[in-house]
Amino acid sequence: MPYFCGVDIGASAAKLVIVDETARTVGKALRRSGIDYTATAEACLADALSEAGLAREQIAATLATGYGRDNVPWADARMTEIACHGRGAWHHFRRPMTVIDIGAQDSKVMHLDGAGRRTSFKMNRKCAAGTGAFLEEIAHRLDLPLSDLNGLAERSTKDVTLSSFCTVFAATEILERIRAGEAVEDIVKGAFRSVVNRIFEMDTVDGTLVMTGGVVAHNPFLATLVGESFGAEALVPPDAQHVGAFGAALLASERARKGEQPC
After folding, report:
1. Is the entire prediction scored with pTM above 0.70?
2. CA 209 to CA 250: how far, in whole Å?
3. pLDDT tens digit string along 41-75?
4. Residue ranges per domain, the chain?
5. Topology of domain 1-93+242-263, per CATH?
6. Which of 4, 33, 73, 85 has the highest Cβ tally under 10 A?
7. Relative orientation angle of helices 167-179 and 184-202, to the nearest 10 degrees
8. How many CA atoms lie within 13 A of 186 on its CB side?
9. 96-236 in CATH: which number?
10. Distances in Å between the alpha carbon of 211 and those of 37, 76, 93?
C-alpha cells in the first residue's frame, strides 16, 4: 500500500501527516519550526514514520505547504496553505463552506463551493493583530502561559473592550486595564474579542463556517466567539492544527493518482 506525506512548515509550528491511499492518517508529528526548517521537517518525518511503523521508502509522494514549504527539499510538490487548509477542511465537511484559518503570523478566509473548489479568499498580512502572535504578546504582557488563555477567557463574566487593533498599542492598553483593576480573565476575553473583530472585518461567511489551525485548536473558545460574531456555529475539524498538513497529504495522493509531475 502506498503512503503519502503532507508537510506544513508554519512560522511557529511544523506539522506533518502521513496518510494511506484511503486518506486514513497513520502517522503525524508536531514540532516548533525553529530556525532550521529543513532540519525540523526531517525530524517531523522521522517522528511520523516511527509512529506509523513505516520506512521512508514507503512514502510514494510528499507535498509541502506553509511559510517554509520551499525549505523541504525532498517534497515532490509545493502548494499554498490556502489550498491545503481548504482541501483538509473539505474532507471533513463536504459542503459549501467558509474556512477561517488563524495562523501564527497571518489569518486567512477561504470560500469553497460544494465540490471543494476555492471560489475566493482573503488574507491578513498587514500586522500581527488577529493572529496567534497577538495572543502570544498578550500572554507575555500578562505574564501567563499561553496555554492558560482559553480557560481564563471562558471564565470571564464581563466584556472588556480593547479599543486598539495594533498589537503594540493593545499591549499598552492591557497594562492600563490592569492598573484600573480589571480582572485578568476579562482582559483575556477582551483580547480574544479583538482577534475575532479583526477576522470579522476581513470577509463575510457563506455556507458552513469552519475554523482550522493551531490557534483555534489550543483556544476553542475563539470558535465560540467567532460563531457569535458571524451568527453561525463555527465547526472545528478533528486535529485542527494538522488540517493544513493533512490537506497537503491528500493533495499529494491525488497528484500521484493523476500522474502529475513534481513541481
Report:
1. yes
2. 21
3. 999 999 999 999 999 999 999 999 999 999 999 99
4. 1-93+242-263, 96-236
5. Nucleotidyltransferase; domain 5 (3.30.420)
6. 85
7. 150
8. 11
9. 3.30.420.40
10. 26, 28, 11
